[in-house]
Amino acid sequence: MRQLLLFLICSISLVLSSLSAASTEPQYKVAILDRFFPPAEGFSSEEERSHHLALYGLDDLDNDSEAEPIYHGDLVRMLAATQQVTFINYPIHHNQNPMGDILANLQKINARMATSPVDALVLSWESSTLISTFPQPLKREHAALYKEKVRQMGESSPIWRDTWLIIKELEKLAETGVAVYTIAGNGGRRMINTFSLANGVITVGAVEEELQHYVANNVFVDTYARAAYLLKRIDNEAGQPLGYDLDADNCVDIPLARLTGAGQQSRDAYPKTYWKVLKGSSFAAPAALKAALAGNKAEPCS
Fold first, then answer.
1. What keywords is this UniProt entry annotated with (predicted)?
2. Domain 25-229+276-294: which topology?
3. What SS3 state is found at 186?
4. What pLDDT is recorded for position 296?
């Protein structure tokens, strides 16, 4: 009995020590502007749901001929996730101009900073143009001239007008100390994401040399991170599939229950490694943010 009591006391002490250590870790609030499932506007019918999934969902993982209910923003969130981060989703609607939606969401975030501040923002979207749009050679010290060019483009184009206003909102956030992450863009060497012109914004490109033809790389790219990901199936000790690992940490990021087949398919329906590589600077930006917030510290699977 005395040994059991000592064991319980030691176990409780270890748990309390672990909780105390965890509580000393800094905690962060991160805003993500993107498309998430389910969409904020919902679905009016099953037909609309299927059409929406075909447009925005992850490819079919469980071989039931239907795209998975996992959108771009859901993947971005998975790649940025750590135990230290709480996310606030700001959805981009499917039936609206994305630039207008991004602008409206940024205005909300800025307006709420006094009462509901965030520590970081991930904007894995782009408003890109040819580098040749601006005087050559491209130089960081000429950013103000390039932004003025974007403003002028906005005089005849609503999309570029929204882009210029987005740049201003991003700068406003960065000025308050928010770590703002955006992407280099996926237009290749000759393109530039004009969001990267914003003062204080961190622009992320691809670390993989194989993606240099696809992901933009110019003087406004601040850092690089992994941009290509291969979904790998995770099994339990009995060899039964549990879900898919996205970022190679051997943890389940996408449980089978989240798929359209709800995990009811036979084992053979789930490929060990999914054939299609997910790639783009959209995925490099959240990876860079995660590295900045949590470093390379390994975390236990949740």
1. Signal
2. Rossmann fold (3.40.50)
3. coil
4. 66
pTM: 0.89
- Assigned token pair, 300: 């236990």
The three-class DSSP label of residue 76 is helix
Q: Read out DSSP for 99-157?
A: HHHHHHHHHHHHHHTTTS--SEEEE----EEEGGGSPSSP-GGGHHHHHHHHHHHTTT-
Q: Nearest to residue 127, comparing CAs of 168, 90, 164?
A: 164
Percentage of residues in the chain having pLDDT higher than 70: 91
Give the model's pLDDT for residue 42: 84
Per DSSP, which regions of 21-96 are E strands? 28-34, 85-91
What are the pLDDT digits (tens) for 19-60? 444 457 789 999 999 999 998 888 888 888 888 888 899 998
The Cα 93–Cα 171 span in angstroms is 24
What is the C-alpha to C-alpha distance for residues 245 and 253, in angstroms, rounded to an integer?
5
| Pairwise CA distance, residues 7 & 257, whole Å | 38
Strand partners, 129: 192
Phi, psi (rounded to 5 degrees) for 40: -60, -30
141, two tokens: 């010290």
The answer to whether the bond into 91 is cis (omega within 30° of 0) is no
**The token pair that represents 38 in the structure block:** 């389910």
CB 185 within 8 A of CB 191: yes
Query: Could you read off the pLDDT of 224-265 as tens digits, one per residue?
Result: 999 999 999 999 999 999 999 999 999 999 999 999 987 677
User: CA angle 282-25-203, nearest 5°?
Assistant: 25
Distance CA 124, CA 109 (A): 16
Angle at 72 between CA 187 and CA 128, to 5 degrees: 25
Q: Where are the domains of the chain?
A: 25-229+276-294
- CA–CA dist 64, 123 (Å, integer): 32
